[in-house]
Write a structure and sequence with these properties.
By secondary structure, this protein is mainly beta. It has one domain: UDP N-Acetylglucosamine Acyltransferase, domain 1 (3 Solenoid), CATH 2.160.10.10. Helix content is 11%, strand content 39%.
Length: 132
C-alpha cells in the first residue's frame, strides 16, 4: 500500500498525529512496526524488520525478521534507516543518515552520525610521492 508517497508493507501501526515525508518505506512483512503518537519522519527514511544477508550467504534458510517499536514524539531525519530489533524510547531524535539495528535507545536521546574527518592536503603528499 502507498499512502501519500509512503510505501507501507505488512503490519505497520502508527499513532495519532503521525507524519512522514515521501518517499519513505516501512516494511514489516511477517513482523511488526509500532510507531507512537506525534512522530515525524523526514524524507527517504527506511524502516525494515527484515534482514536477508544470512540467507543470501547460505548461512540460513530464513530471512531474519525482528519487530521495531518507536515511542511517542520521535523524529527521524532524512535518509535514516531503522532495522529490526530496534526500540526507540519516547522523545528521541534520530539524525540524518543514522543506521540502527538491534538498538535500544533510551527516552530523551539524540543519535547522530560522527562529524566528518577532513584530511586537508591528503592527496598533495601522495601526489608528490607519485611524481618522484
Amino acid at each position: 500500500m502507498i499512502e501519500n508517497g509512503v510505501r507501507i508493507i505488512g503490519n505497520v501501526v502508527y499513532g495519532k498525529n503521525f507524519s512522514a515525508c515521501a518517499p519513505a518505506e516501512f516494511m514489516a512483512k511477517d513482523s511488526s512496526i509500532i510507531i507512537g503518537d506525534d512522530c515525524d519522519f523526514a524524507a527517504f527514511v527506511t524502516i525494515s524488520t527484515a534482514d536477508s544477508h544470512k540467507r543470501c550467504l547460505k548461512l540460513s534458510d530464513k530471512i531474519e525478521r525482528k519487530p521495531i517499536i518507536l515511542g511517542d514524539r520521535v523524529f527521524i531525519g532524512t535518509g535514516a534507516v531503522i532495522l529490526g530489533g530496534t526500540e526507540l524510547g519516547h522523545d528521541c531524535v534520530i539524525g540524518a543518515n543514522v543506521v540502527l539495528k538491534n538498538a535500544k535507545i533510551p527516552p530523551y536521546s539524540r543519535v547522530k552520525v560522527a562529524t566528518p574527518i577532513i584530511e586537508e592536503g591528503y592527496f598533495v603528499s601522495k601526489r608528490e610521492k607519485q611524481l618522484r
